[in-house]
Amino acid sequence: MITKKKIYLKNLAEILSGVYEKTDPDGEVVYLQTKDCTDTVITKYASRVLLTPKMQKNLLQEGDILFASKGVNYLSVVFREQEKAVASTSFFVIRLRSSVATPEYLCWFLRQPSIKAYFKSNQVGSATPLIHKPAVENLEIPVPSLDEQKVIVAIARLSKREMELQQAIIEKKQNIVQQLLMNKIK
């Protein structure tokens, strides 16, 4: 049974703003932007910045959650890369200070439709909507036990994989039908 305990995100984590820096192709630090993230962080084609003292103090840590503060996709992803990286101003970096929640669970929670609706109702601007830090800090997070969090994340991962496999099956069936039909008219 999942507990009903809720904690404000600001009491679970530190919420940091991403940094602005001019990119440099010779830089040794990955400069992550929203285009570099989907369900995972992909550093291969990301821009680079030089390792300055400012960049050094803003380096991402294992388990940090990148949350897109600009736009309408409300992207969230857990940083698990080994490469030195910083987040651009397109992100809030959510760094857990408490061990009562896992980064994967929090990331899953931030992706839920009801939470996306919460952020949509709290965004400002129209050309490039953005979410202010207090809206993120004051989000209430239900915190089940760590075991329950692991189960939730595992089921969500399996459900996503099932959808991917079903889509692959549909596409293969369509290809077979198309090939059979083309063979009929040859």
From TrEMBL:
Superkingdom per UniProt: Bacteria
Coiled coil: none
Domain Type I restriction modification DNA specificity: 23-169
Protein name per the record: Restriction endonuclease subunit S
Lyase found in the keyword field: no
Protein's organism: Phocaeicola faecium
Family label: Belongs to the type-I restriction system S methylase family.
Keywords from the named record: DNA-binding, Endonuclease, Hydrolase, Nuclease, Restriction system
InterPro entries the record matches: Restrct_endonuc_typeI_TRD, Restrct_endonuc_typeI_TRD_sf, Type-I_RS_S_subunit
Sample GO molecular function, one term: endonuclease activity
Alphabetical list of Pfam families matching this protein: Methylase_S
SUPFAM superfamilies referenced in this protein's UniProt entry, alphabetically: DNA methylase specificity domain (SSF116734)
